[in-house]
Amino acid sequence: MRALLKGTRPGAVVHLPAGDAVVGFELAPDPGLGDALCKTVAPEVFFPEPGETAVAEVARELCERCPVRAACLEDALAAEGNARPYNRYGIRGGKDEQERYLIYRARRRAAEGEKVTNKCGSEPGYHRHRRDGELPCPACRDAYRTRRRGRRARARARKAVAA
């Protein structure tokens, strides 16, 4: 049995044997992204290892000058869908994994008309900031610390009564 898997975009397809099947992978970029500057640079630049901030800055600088940056970002957001930040890779459209995830979440909330139920200045607000990849605002941070202090005090009191 032989099978060929390939995408819908025209371009080069590499055929690799995989057991009894042959799997094809596209190497051609999206035709709408044909003028992208990244075509002239090694792909490794756009997939820096953690801590390689200089490489990441080079990639971001290239993206800033690219004529199809907006289309590239839209392509990345469409391709990644609802993937979490740890399932997104590289710098695309000038944004890293976390930045693209935050854009996705903001758009999803706007599209669904999702109301922010975890108001700032509360412990749930603190957790919302953290979940969204933001630094908690001072009011949420204070509310979280106050609640945590109260929990610790109650635990100490229970421990003292039990002893």
Can you characterise this structure?
The chain has helices at residues 53-65, 69-80, 97-112, 123-131, 138-162; strands at residues 13-18, 21-26. It has 163 residues and is mainly alpha-helical. The protein has three domains: 1-31, no CATH class; 34-112, no CATH class; 123-162. It has a two-stranded antiparallel sheet. It starts with 12 loop residues before the first strand and ends with a helix.
Task: Give me the side-by-side strand order of the main sheet.
Answer: 1-2
H and E string: EEHHHHH
Q: Give the N-terminus to C-terminus distance in angstroms.
A: 72 Å
The domain tally reads 3
Number of helices: 5
Give me the secondary-structure category: mainly alpha
How large is the share of residues in beta strands? 5-15%
* Unreliable parts: 1-16, 23-29
> What value does the Rg take, in angstroms?
23 Å
Shape: elongated
Query: Mean of residue pLDDT?
Result: 78
What's the main sheet like?
2 strands, antiparallel
Helix content: 40-55%
- The count of DSSP E runs of length 2 or more, i.e. the number of strands, is 2
